[in-house]
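Deliverable D4.2, example record:
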Amino acid sequence: MKGGNITILRALPGFEAQRQAAQQLRGRCGVSITSSRHEALRHLRDWVFQNEQFHARYQTGDVSIELVGELVGRLASHAALPQRRSAPQLFQEALLSGCAETVERLTTFGASAHLPGFHAAAVHTLQELRHHRVSPGDLPTDERRAADLACLIDQLDRELERHRLSTLSHRIERLVDTEPSLPQGLSHILWIGEDEWPPIFITLLDWLVRAGCKVSVLTETHPFDDRFFVAEAALRDAFPDAAIKATNAPVRPIHAVFAADHVAETADSSVGIVAAADEFVEVEHAVRHTRSRLRQGVAPSDVVLFAPSLDEYGPLLHSTCVRLGVPVEMDYRAALLTNPFARFCSWALSAAVNGSLHAVA
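Output generated by the structure prediction step:
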């Protein structure tokens, strides 16, 4: 078996770097471009369809664009593992809600196990534990709470097994226990679009390298401060011998995303002035800085974000905090029908008034 390797491609944020990284693989055979994020692959797939050379190879199967779950499924099939479909998060929430009475009886969660947001929070927590390969017993919490989390894991796993479903983390765990081997027609992987590299993905990367795969990982970097994007640090720690290269993306995105005078000098060293091209980058910088402070031990209640107008910045702050996992509390006005549940209720009322079967469907 030929030895694989991993290359870390450093690039400025934006699609241009992804296109350049894909271009570097144009002469390679058996290429898979993968990510856990639909939106990252969607943009790259649109570009591939417009590129005559890549599109021809895509049609023959020599180049594939697939989610990590689809790639893992291909590898699991080659390893002759039982095929199990990954249950989406909403489906996991529904399965766990069916166990609410059992959870109430066996844990200290009590009646809260029936609350609407409980199942979403529970599934998110269990997902984080799986991604970071942490068992409840390893958590710095009391024995009773660890037992409650273990009960949630057991109930969800039972329901997944009963419906012959799985999760991406479970499928990766089973795959890395097999002898590393690649299916025919797969030799290079370009992994893009990740904000962080949890241990479960690091484990998969290590298995791919041992299987003889040439893996290129695209990571975002800041033009002035390497600490701005922290995902690369986890990769460097896990693969100290990895080659680190810069993509050949044009300089233009630097000025399109970050202002040249990014930090202004002030008399007070505790104050930093950061210039951003627009409100999107401004919010991204603020929330990422907040996340770094929280990871240093600062309590969420001790951090305050000020914005000129919550009508404009509220949705941006909320979506960015959700995406980056930063707890946030705010009160901003939004159009009622932007809420999916409100739209559903509106459609249900419309169906009841109009008697339309199409509206009911």
